[in-house]
Specification:
This protein is of the alpha/beta class and about 950 residues long. The chain has 25 helices and 54 strands. The protein is elongated and about 115 Å long.
């Protein structure tokens, strides 16, 4: 069954529909909508329905249904199809609510569905901004309606947005639509409130959900703003929108074609219009004449347009306008007479004359009006005596005479922007009420201009960027808060006095030499890259941060400016990076918490008496010779970057970490840090026993001490370590020690001992460890690159069962590691104690040929074994239950490999000469092996990886050479 309905209704039909709705007729109507399609009678005449015309002109948007079965006899069913958007908000979803209450949900009964899509789709399409993808949005909206196809009538001569729509329905389509229809149980007021947060595009999308949402989203409350900026809307479409939403208050047609036609339509149709935006076209004189008919208009914005025919005066006369913007427009002469006007912008427009009659105007912008002559500017501004803000930047014709006239006429002028006006110098100009003055790139502004500016005692903001002739600024202004001086090439001297000064921007003034600032409000001062600055005087009681980076000419006198007793009692952060003229720095401050001297390469002496100093940066201070930190609040300090440091004094009650690594000439060190826990004095070759003894006495909490490459430390210094009861880690690598007895006697709690490359230790030096039971708490021992013999190493590994980490890298006197025994197995298990060794490193031991670790050796905790780079190693036989990591890489002589390591996960055999069969046999007993590295193994072919995987199914990664070697 096809139903064609005409939905072109007038205002009379709308009123009639509202009356029927208030009388409650729809409840009875919708209660009788269910009827059997086979028993329903004809609805009008076929030819009338097919033509799209209503059967009865008086009925407007209604058609009558004769009742069939299930309906009361003798009554007609009136279905009102008038879905005009002009009704009350509460009526937008009335049909959906009544349908929920009255319709029978029997799936076997049929009922006609009539949807008004002329209003559901058209209005949304026209009301939203005409974006380029609107055609896709329009298409998507129609497709989402499922089986209802909405299309405009193709009758010749009909408007583009016709109100005649077609709806098709059959049994299959109707049943599917019933199943897919979404019903939301929301009240009209709640729906209205939610939709008030949506934009036009979202409203259109919401209209796709259901009939109630379509009607609610089309309410005129949501379409007060008609925005068609840069959209290709036709006059007919725009006229239709204006008729649909006559109460719209804002219209934007900037960039739309035929703006004159559109704006005339808006003025004639929208009587409540308050905000009008248009541009990018030509506006005739009739538009400005018709503006008076738009009595509610408050704001007019015209951008990039041609006003009139280019020769006549353009009048803008209006009694209610508050704001006007005529920006970037082409016009010869303009006349504005608006008694209520408050703001006027003629920025970047080409008029040569402007006549203003706006007695209440307080904001005038004529910036970049290059053709506006000096006399015209004077006449225009002086005709507005109440103006408070004036922007005349880039008006090159402005003169001091004009400014004098303005100062006499506009007594309330507070904001003046005269930037890029080369002819002004402010001589004899008095602007006492100014609060903001901008004079960017004014070539006439010199030091003499400061006399005129000093009379603006209300001035709060002053900007003098790019004033190339300005040499000095002396100002004493009680209300000055913000001043800018950027790219003033000849600027030499700055003197400011203001109790409320809070922001100073001085940048790229290469000639600036002297600065004197007095302020009670300034908290941050940044003067970066002032290469000529030599004198700085500050009386700033609240100043907390100062940045003087790259001020190369600053001398040692700067220290007095920021020390106690100067004018900055609250200074917390000071940055003097790359101030290369500083040689002796001395600060005494009870407020300073952060100091940066990075890149100050000329500093030779540093003395800081700053008890609250928490951070200090000395990167690049490679000529520092003497340093005193007494007292400071530092928790950590790194002086290893100062290779020439020879004298050091530190008194830091809270310091816990001190690094002196690389201070090779440090010979005098007085360290008083009672909370110090870690001291790194690596490569301090001149550090002697007396310094070490004094440090141990004053820093009793040290638990980690690194004395690597400190050859001057002897037995006396090591004996003083008894004052360190918490010492657990000691590094004596690369020293000339011959006797370790002072260490065994003093460091009873030692857990880590590093003795790398201590070549002067004898074979008996470690006997107290494995014979006398010294250092029972020791867990890690590093004897790499030492000269101990094989017997000492075997005794150490056999007797020191408490060791967990042992490093024997590069030990040339070590031969085989063989823990096999000749006694019976029962005796072996009884005799051999359980060893705690977890990591054993024997990297690069050239004389090791055999490694045998049977299970009876009881290395039950061994998890990592590294014997790589042992070129003469031939046989490895390891049976360790917990071994996880085994590295035999670069053992080129390896031939025999036997493994009984059920928990081994990683095996590295890179560059080994072992055979494929030996590897296959070895890994067959490693049920948890995941990683195998056989790269550059000459006897193992890449094509044999399958055999290795078969031998060890747990393998996940095999690293092999891509091509045979």
């Amino acid at each position: 069954m096809k139903i064609w309905c005409c939905l072109c209704f007038g205002e009379e039909e709308e009123e009639e529909y509202k009356k029927r709705e208030t009388m409650g007729e729809r409840k009875g109507i919708l209660g009788n909508l269910d009827f059997d399609e086979g028993k329903s009678e004809e609805i009008g005449h076929d030819e009338e329905l097919g033509s799209g015309k209503p059967r009865d002109e008086d009925d407007g948007g209604k058609f009558r249904l004769q009742p069939g079965e299930g309906t009361s006899r003798g009554s007609n069913v009136d279905v009102n199809l008038n879905l005009s958007l002009g009704g009350d908000p509460s009526s937008s979803s009335a049909a959906a609510v009544l349908e929920r209450d009255g319709l029978d949900r029997d799936s076997h009964s049929k009922r006609p569905k009539v949807h008004s899509l002329a209003l559901d789709c058209d209005s949304f399409l026209l009301s939203m901004p005409f974006q380029e993808n609107m055609s896709d949005e329009y298409e998507r909206m129609h497709n989402s309606l499922g089986n209802y196809l909405c299309s405009a009538s193709e009758d010749e001569g009909s408007p583009l947005m016709s109100n005649i729509w077609r709806m098709e329905e059959d049994e299959n389509v109707q049943q599917e639509m019933d199943d897919r229809e979404i019903r939301m149980d929301l009240t009209d007021d709640l729906l209205h409130m939610v939709f008030s947060f949506l934009g036009h595009i979202d409203l259109c999308r919401a209209a796709e959900v259901c009939r109630q949402w379509r009607m609610a989203s089309a309410h005129e409350d949501f379409w007060r703003i008609l925005n068609f900026e840069n959209r290709n809307i036709s006059p007919l479409q725009f006229e239709d929108m204006c008729h649909r939403y006559p109460n719209a208050t804002q219209v934007n047609i900037n960039g739309s074609p035929a703006i004159h036609t559109l704006v005339m339509q808006a003025i004639s149709s929208l009587r409540n219009l308050e905000f009008l935006t248009l541009g990018k076209g030509q506006l005739g004189e009739t538009f400005f004449q018709a503006l008076t008919d738009c009595t509610m208009l408050k704001s007019l914005i015209v951008t990039d347009a041609i006003l009139g025919n280019g020769i006549q005066e353009i009048p803008i006369y209006h009694d209610t306008l508050r704001h006007i913007q005529i920006v970037k427009c082409r016009v010869v002469r303009i006349s504005v007479r608006c008694p209520q006007l408050l703001t006027l912008s003629l920025k970047r427009s080409s008029m040569a004359h402007a006549v203003l009659n706006c007695p209440l105007l307080n904001d005038l912008d004529i910036a970049s009006c290059h053709k506006l002559l000096d006399a015209a500017i004077r006449s225009a501004v002086t005709s507005c005596p109440l103006v408070e803000s004036l922007d005349m930047s880039n008006c090159s014709c402005v003169s001091d005479e004009t400014l004098r006239e303005i100062s006499l006429t506009c007594a309330n002028l507070h904001i003046l922007n005269a930037s890029y006006c080369p002819n002004i110098s402010l001589e004899s100009v008095r602007l006492p009420m100014l609060t903001v003055l901008k004079l960017h790139s004014c070539e006439g502004i010199t030091s003499a201009s400061m006399a005129a500016i000093s009379h603006s005692y209300m001035l709060e903001v002053l900007e003098l960027d790019n004033c190339s002739l300005l040499t000095s600024v002396f100002l004493d202004l009680p209300r000055l808060q913000n001043i800018r001086l950027v790219h003033c090439r000849k600027f030499v001297d700055l003197r400011l006095r203001s109790a409320v000064l809070s922001s100073i921007k001085v940048s790229n003034c290469p000639s600036l030499q002297r600065i004197n600032i007095v302020s009670n409000s300034l908290q941050k001062l940044v003067l970066q890259k002032q290469e000529s600055l030599t004198s700085l005087e500050l009386q700033c009681q609240r100043l907390q941060e100062v940045d003087l980076t790259d001020c190369e000419s600053l001398t040692n006198s700067i220290c007095e400016v920021f020390s106690d007793g100067s004018g900055c009692p609250m200074l917390k952060s000071l940055i003097l990076d790359n101030c290369e003229s500083l040689t002796e720095v001395e600060f005494c401050s009870n407020s300073l918490t952060s100091l940066s001297l990075a890149g100050c390469r000329a500093i030779t002496s540093l003395e800081l008496t700053c008890p609250y100093l928490e951070q200090v940066s000395l990167d690049g201070c490679d000529h520092l010779e003497r340093a005193t930190f007494s007292p400071v609040g530092l928790r950590s300090l790194n002086l290893g970057i100062c290779p020439k440091l020879n004298s050091l004094k530190i008194e830091a009650p809270t310091m816990v970490l001190l690094e002196l690594k690389g201070c090779g000439v440090l010979s005098e060190a007085l360290i008083n840090c009672p909370l110090l826990t870690s001291l790194d004095a690596s490569f301090c070759s001149q550090l002697k026993d007396d310094c070490l003894s004094a440090t141990a006495a004053s820093c009793p909490l040290i638990d980690s001490l690194i004395l690597m490459s400190c050859p001057s430390v002897g037995p006396d210094g090591l004996l003083s370590l008894r004052w360190l009861p918490n010492l657990t880690s000691l590094d004596l690598s690369y020293t000339f020690l011959t006797n370790l007895q002072p260490v065994f006697d003093s460091c009873l709690q030692l857990k880590v001992l590093k003795l790398q490359a201590c070549k002067y230790l004898t074979d008996t030096s470690l006997e107290p460890l494995y014979k006398d039971g010294a250092l029972t708490t020791l867990r890690e021992l590093d004897l790499s690159y030492g000269s101990l013999c094989q017997a000492s190493i075997e005794e150490l590994l056999a007797c020191c069962t408490h060791l967990t980490h042992v490093s024997l890298n590069g030990c040339v006197n070590m031969h085989d590691l063989n823990w096999s025994f000749s006694t019976s197995q029962d005796e072996q298990q009884q005799q051999q104690p359980e060893r705690l060794l977890q990591n054993l490193n024997c990297v690069g031991c050239p004389n090791v040929k055999k490694v045998v670790i049977p299970s009876v050796a009881r290395f039950t905790h061994l998890s990592s074994l590294n014997i790589s780079l042992s070129a003469n190693l031939k046989e490895v036989d390891v049976a360790c239950f917990n071994l996880c990591f085994l590295n035999l890489s670069n053992c080129s002589s390896l031939e025999i490999l036997k493994l009984d390591c059920p928990r081994l996960t990683s095996l590295f055999l890179q560059s080994c000469n072992i055979s494929e069969e030996a590897v296959e046999s070895a890994i067959s007993h490693c049920n948890m092996l995941e990683t195998l590295d056989v790269r550059f193994c000459q006897k193992i072919s890449p094509s044999s990886m399958g055999r290795l995987r078969a031998a060890c199914p747990s393998l996940k990664r095999i690293f092999s050479s891509l091509v045979p070697i």
